[in-house]
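Translate structure to sequence.
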């Protein structure tokens, strides 16, 4: 599914003055570095995974735009990304485009660190009315659009069906048999491990990704509780619902159903190597896992995706969004700004290619297209779009998340009791919220 980029490129060419005038801009992002594999690929249809597809899209823009623009990519590790981006405002090496999570955007819009894009999008032909309402709301502040929404991404269960069949945990329709309560989760996990000798679930458990924190947030929403209030002014992290959710997560490790020694890459390798029945990870790996399973190069061969089950009642799951912004830089030339807007329009025009990663599209025209509907595994987690819940957009969201990770990890790494860990996390987040106020 390809879209014309003529309108945006024509606008940029007019702004730049001539099609032959060269202009270089910088793009700062995470998503990894895969230059060795995709550095020369200019067709995103020939790429897989987040890194591959965004690299190929950038390559295609550089190779095909008629405005003389070149996008130079700067990559950063996810854990350090926002600290490094913030530092560029001090060093003066501010990127022309940067990726940003919706949950982080308020920390930048409130300090005028990103430029408004509404008028620039209108001039370039980016139809903001095509964005699903929630995505447009997440990209906006005080009635102005500050970002190009690119996806909605959420937590999923990724399943090794070969191991599930070995454990007798497959439904008659061929779907994985998943638990509907904490007690059933533990019982199924023990059944799985007795039958296979493998871990029931793999998850990053000792690094900055915070997969179990995201699961905790999901379980709190399933009980009707917002960890962070919608206005971002208060936190509810040490009440009875929180203790129930945290005690369940700790029991996964106490019962030996997960390996607490795994970081993000270790959890992925365990799943791909057939050492775990389920991995807790996001929409962003669907394309990558599916491709690897089909390649025959890993032990995982029968791959399936599932919505995170409702273990505490109401279906709900953690979600966020990737967006693109233009950081504020008084030294940026009009030509550089025009090239940045042209690239954002190009990305929006190629939204379908990005949705191949496994992410949920934010463009209504893409969601309704036959190409999107035909993507692998999408029917298996179709409900995720309806049950996805985003954390409130507030300042210092990353600091809140990091504070939770530190205290939560103590439960399975050092044996801290859930109530003590939750009390510590509550106090830490309250300090952050007081600073916000």
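Result:
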């Amino acid at each position: 599914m390809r879209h014309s980029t003529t309108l945006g490129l024509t606008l940029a060419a007019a702004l730049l003055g001539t099609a032959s005038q060269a202009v270089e801009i910088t793009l700062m992002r995470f998503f990894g570095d895969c230059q060795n594999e995709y550095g020369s690929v200019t067709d995103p249809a020939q790429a897989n995974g987040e890194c591959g597809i965004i690299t190929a899209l950038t390559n295609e823009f550089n190779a095909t735009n008629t405005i003389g623009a070149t996008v130079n990519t700067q990559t950063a590790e996810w854990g350090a990304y926002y600290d490094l981006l913030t530092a560029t405002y001090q060093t003066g090496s501010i990127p022309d485009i940067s990726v940003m999570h919706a949950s982080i955007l308020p920390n930048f819009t409130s300090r005028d660190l990103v430029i408004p894009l509404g008028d620039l999008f209108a001039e370039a032909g980016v139809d903001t009315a095509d964005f699903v309402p929630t995505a447009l709301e997440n990209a906006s502040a005080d009635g102005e659009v500050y970002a190009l929404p690119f996806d909605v991404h959420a937590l999923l269960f990724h399943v090794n069906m070969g191991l599930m069949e070995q454990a007798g945990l497959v439904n008659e329709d061929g779907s994985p048999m998943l638990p509907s309560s904490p007690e059933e989760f533990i019982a199924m996990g023990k059944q799985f491990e007795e039958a296979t000798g493998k871990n029931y679930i793999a998850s990053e458990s000792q690094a900055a990704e915070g997969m179990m924190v995201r699961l905790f947030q999901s379980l709190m929403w399933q009980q009707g509780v917002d960890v962070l209030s919608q206005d971002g002014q208060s936190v509810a992290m040490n009440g009875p619902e929180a203790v129930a959710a945290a005690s369940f997560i700790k029991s996964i490790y106490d019962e030996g159903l997960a390996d607490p020694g795994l970081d993000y890459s270790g959890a992925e390798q365990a799943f791909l190597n057939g050492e775990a029945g389920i991995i807790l990870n996001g929409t962003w790996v669907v394309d990558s896992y599916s491709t690897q399973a089909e390649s025959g190069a890993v032990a995982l061969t029968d791959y399936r995706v599932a919505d995170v089950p409702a273990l505490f009642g109401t279906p709900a799951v953690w979600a966020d969004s990737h967006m693109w912004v233009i950081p504020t830089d008084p030294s940026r030339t009009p030509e550089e700004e025009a090239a940045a807007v042209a690239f954002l329009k190009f990305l929006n025009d190629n939204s379908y290619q990005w949705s191949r990663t496994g992410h949920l599209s934010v463009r209504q025209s893409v969601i309704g297209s036959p190409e999107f509907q035909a993507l692998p595994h999408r029917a298996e987690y179709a409900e995720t779009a309806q049950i996805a819940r985003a954390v409130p957009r507030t300042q210092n969201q990353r600091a809140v998340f990091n504070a939770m990770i530190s205290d939560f990890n103590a439960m399975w790494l050092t044996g801290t009791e859930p109530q003590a860990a939750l009390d510590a996390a509550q106090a830490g987040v309250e300090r952050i919220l007081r600073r916000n106020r």
